[in-house]
Sequence to fold (206 residues):
Amino acid sequence: MTTEDVKLERVLQGATEVFLQQGYTAATTDMIQKSAGVSKATVYTRYPNKQALFTAVIERQCKLLTHNIIQCLPQSKDILSTLTDIGTRYLTLLLSKEGLALYRTIVAETPRFPELGRIFYQSGPKVVLDQVTKYITQAANEGQLAVQQVGARNAAVLFLSLLRGESQLQCVTHPDFHPTEVLIEEWVNQAIITFRQAFFVGDPNA
Fold:
């Protein structure tokens, strides 16, 4: 990495810490400069205002949070193993400290800055949905899933919604609650049981 690349990464890391801790409104460029350990000139050279910097933070965090999910699509011909891997990675990232902080910040700021919400959706949730849809389409073409009545995309939406519903609600409404690996595994299994009953063809364990 060049010196400029290092400085840019420090700005983004510092901005991420400040935005996720303070929220968009309370965050200031002075806080970000101090957190990043760079000059104001360095911050403003790359990002002319706070909104531009926040947009970069959203895109960066979404990329980090979706990377692991995309990596496992598909790694196995066994649909149960693949869906379990997807579900576990998805919830682990979604319910992480950083994932929840980003979600809370976006929900709080989107009514005043709708474009930030659109950027978040396009950079994060839509990327995951597109990849899961692609996998479900492939599984359906191979005769493992029957999704003709709803379509592959709606089946993907339902799977991700089954994973996210109760788990994310509990974590968002209870800031001090941190789910264990065992609980995440339970949530994933519950989602897969429901999805399996709706869309699996035959007995996947046969």
Remarks:
- The chain has a mean pLDDT of 89.
